[in-house]
Amino acid sequence: MLKKLAGIKSAAIDELSSLSDLGELEAWRVRYLGKKSELTQILRGVASLPIDQRKVIGASANKVKVLFEHSYQEHKKSLKERAYQEMEAATGSKQIISTPGISSAEKFGSPDVSLPDVSLPDVSLPGRPIPLGRLHPTTQMVREICNIFIALGFQVVEGPEVEWDYYNFEALNIPPDHPAHDMFATFWIDTEPDQRPMLLRTHTSPMQIRVMEQTRPPVRVVVPGKVYRYEATDATHESMFYQIEGLAVDENITFSDLKGTLYEFAKRLFGEERRVRFRCDYFPFVEPGVEMAIDCMACGGSGCRLCSDTGWIEILGAGMVHPDVLRRVHYDPEVYTGFAFGLGVERIPMLRYGIDDIRLFYSNDLRFLSQF
Ligand code: DAH
């Protein structure tokens, strides 16, 4: 019996060293360690052996079993390691596969194996291009406009989109019962009964108040940001869009400063040859209030579809800051005067590129967005 065991042992170990893939290894395991293997049969028979043989045979057979199991695990590990190395050599890349017990030096050392029969990649080919991201057309426009005002001496500041009713309306001469209040359809925020009313700002003008509360003249700021209106969307209306507010307050600021600044802005944005037109308009927080138009860049003023046959395109609202607004922030209107303006951002690329639906800006269709 002991001889038989020795025979099985040497045959199995000899065979094991010549196995070169995991399939063969599995077959070996079944043959030498499986339920029907000779070794298992011997181990099963141990109990029925005479007592003196039982100890010796049992111990030897168990030793062989432990040896087989250990050798099996070792061989499996080395076959796997060889497979990784072959893969690395074939792909030229280091696959980081953690193999416990094998140092990275062993893992990544020069593979001592012949290359498998796979075609190697052509490393001289150019890499796959990574698509470049870009700024949203609105962001591009906001930056372009702000840069013009920065060059004219303005600072850029931003403010909250969730705003107190006080800043959005009241401080701008729009009290709750004022008809101008109706000009804005508003998203109101649910507040506790003891809280002041809060809303999503309907324009960037509330930042005029916040800026003046926090600084003393001279003030020269532009405020880009999102504004919200509760209304049905269509080709020219969105419930969220961007505005840029402007404010300049100092001693001796006059209506000519307003006209000069905005004329310069229009030329820098729409071209040196642009003409501008100012007409009276009403906004509760300015007096006088105006609307500024540029001559139509499509027809040069003779009338076309873009300007609805008027030759002019309205681009912003403006005016001289109302004395009551100045008083509210403790600026003396006898000493300080100022002008303010507000413009819708999306309208400008719409005019420039002939975009006929404002909803395209925020519907996240890359076919539209990637054109800018
Ligand atoms: N806030 C106004 C609006 O949303 C636009 C505006 C008009 C802003 C006149 C101004 C201004 O600063 O002076 O319609």
List keywords for this structure.
binds 3,4-dihydroxyphenylalanine, 372 residues, 12 helices, single chain, alpha+beta, three-stranded antiparallel sheet
Per DSSP E runs of 2 or more residues, the count of β-strands stands at 10
Adjacency order of strands in the biggest sheet? 1-5-6-10-9-8-7
Largest sheet: 7 strands, mixed
Contiguous uncertain segments of 5+ residues:
95-99, 102-107
- SS-based class: alpha+beta
Radius of gyration: 41 Å
- Average pLDDT level: 89
Bound molecules: 3,4-dihydroxyphenylalanine
Helix content: 25-40%
Count of DSSP-assigned helices: 12
Order of helices and strands: HHHHHHEEHEEHEEHEEEHEHH
The rough form would be described as: elongated
Q: Short description, anyone?
A:
By secondary structure, the chain is of the alpha+beta class. It is 38% helix and 18% strand. The longest helix has 41 residues.
Chart the SSEs and their pairings:
Blueprint: H1 2-17, H2 22-33, H3 38-45, H4 51-91, H5 104-108, H6 137-151, E1 155-156, E2 162-164, H7 165-168, E3 188-189, E4 198-200, H8 206-214, E5 219-228, E6 240-251, H9 255-270, E7 276-281, E8 286-295, E9 312-321, H10 323-328, E10 336-344, H11 347-353, H12 366-369
Parallel strand pairs: 1-5
Antiparallel strand pairs: 2-4, 3-4, 5-6, 6-10, 7-8, 8-9, 9-10
Helix pairs in contact: 1-4, 2-4
